[in-house]
Backbone:
């Protein structure tokens, strides 16, 4: 949060210190210590009152451990409070990696909290199963690595496309890339289910590792370097590049409009199981096919864009697909308000929405990278970050409604209306 003060450095040079990661690291250490010292005693007192006799001590342990009887547990809450508070104050909250590391830390803390909770409520020293705890921690760590690899791979592929093609060919190449990215999530559950059914679920991890090794081998053998790497990492320069990109009105409008346009459909993915199963009585299998069919619509949108780009202006393509999204979202919203939605209408509207998302994606990404000039790598990373953030916002907003159809329709309509406004105001510089 304090990183935003760098914007005032032009008026007061002292704010430049917030630009340096070493200064912010020191500030984060001091802040976390102060939080623990200030709120730690209150947390301990509250835990002592709520826990009563505290954590049971193992009978087969050293005699010195019995002195700890009655000591309140869950003290990790103090450390997590200090970490979260200092990161929120001093961290670069626009960085995907900061959020990934923070979520991993909170995940591990939640496991420890649950372990202590079982010990206190059941008054036993057994707690959470050791195997289960290690298994969950392994899955969290594996998901962390997968997130890093997935986010990095998504940004890198777009940069490679931008390095090796220009103009219309960039948009066409991104359309093919989006098509592949859409097919992956659609085929993965089917392939994974077959592997688990034939060999057991543990073999899925072996298959993923094998695929990773094959990807490394193929990339090393056939993928040439498409840029001129400097070999140095300058955190200040990276931050400055991000700041300058987001300060450009045209770039900001392009990236926010493109991100929400491509991930507003997450509101449907979150709401569809409740709408189609709980409210309309479809089976889980039928819902799976309904949601999966939307990927074909998105792929069709990408292929259509690839065929017309160069013959139709990019701006017209974007506005057209966004208007389709607005109308589809408005239709969904009216259907929810009037209680006229049926399984057929829900699936039909979702196909139209995913068709629009698939069609606008390549042009939105191409426009964003073009506005970035030589900073296509940073722009690609920011675009992926904004896509994930907008997807989370749309999913969260839709989940706030007890009427899932109403929430889904309202989020879809407002998200695409926002996109239309952003791109109408967009003027490439």
Residues:
């Amino acid at each position: 949060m304090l990183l935003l003060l760098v914007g005032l450095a032009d008026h007061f040079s002292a704010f430049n210190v917030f630009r340096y990661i070493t200064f912010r690291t020191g500030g984060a250490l001091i802040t976390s210590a102060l939080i623990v010292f200030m709120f730690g005693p209150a947390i301990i007192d509250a835990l002592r009152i709520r826990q009563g006799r505290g954590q049971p001590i193992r009978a087969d342990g050293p005699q010195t451990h019995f002195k700890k009887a009655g000591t309140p547990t869950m003290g990790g809450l103090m450390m997590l409070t200090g970490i979260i508070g200092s990161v929120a104050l001093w961290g670069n909250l626009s960085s995907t990696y900061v959020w990934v590391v923070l979520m991993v830390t909170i995940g591990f803390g939640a496991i420890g909290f649950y372990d202590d909770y079982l010990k206190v409520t059941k008054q036993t020293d057994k707690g959470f199963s050791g195997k289960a705890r290690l298994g969950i921690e392994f899955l969290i760590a594996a998901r962390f690595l997968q997130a890093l690899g997935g986010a990095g791979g998504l940004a890198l592929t777009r940069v490679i496309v931008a390095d090796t093609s220009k103009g219309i060919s960039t948009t066409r190449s991104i359309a093919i890339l989006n098509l592949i990215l859409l097919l992956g999530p659609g085929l993965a559950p089917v392939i994974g289910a077959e592997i688990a059914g034939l060999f057991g679920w543990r073999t899925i991890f072996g298959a993923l590792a094998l695929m990773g090794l094959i990807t490394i081998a193929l990339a090393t053998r056939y993928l040439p370097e498409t840029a001129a790497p400097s070999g140095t990492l300058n955190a200040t320069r990276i931050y400055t590049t991000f700041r300058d990109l987001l300060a450009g009105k045209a770039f900001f409008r392009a990236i926010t409009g493109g991100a929400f346009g491509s991930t507003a459909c997450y509101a449907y993915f979150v709401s569809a199981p409740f709408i189609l199963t709980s409210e309309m009585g479809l089976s889980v299998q039928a819902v799976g096919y309904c949601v999966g069919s939307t990927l074909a619509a998105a792929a069709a949108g990408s292929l259509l864009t690839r065929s017309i780009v160069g013959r139709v202006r990019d701006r017209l393509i974007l506005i057209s697909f966004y208007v389709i999204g607005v109308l589809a979202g408005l239709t969904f919203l009216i259907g929810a308000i009037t209680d006229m939605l049926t399984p057929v209408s829900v699936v039909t509207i979702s196909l139209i929405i995913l068709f629009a998302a698939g069609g606008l994606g390549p042009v939105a990404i191409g426009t964003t990278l073009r506005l970035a000039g030589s900073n296509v790598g940073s722009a690609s990373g920011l675009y992926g970050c904004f896509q994930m953030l907008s997807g989370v916002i749309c999913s969260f907003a839709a989940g706030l409604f007890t009427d899932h159809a109403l929430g889904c329709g309202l989020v879809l309509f407002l998200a695409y209306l926002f996109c239309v406004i952003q791109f109408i105001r967009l003027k490439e510089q």
The two ends are 29 Å apart (CA to CA). The CA atoms of residues 186 and 292 lie 6 Å apart. The chain has a mean pLDDT of 78. The chain has two domains: 2-60+72-128, 138-219+243-424.
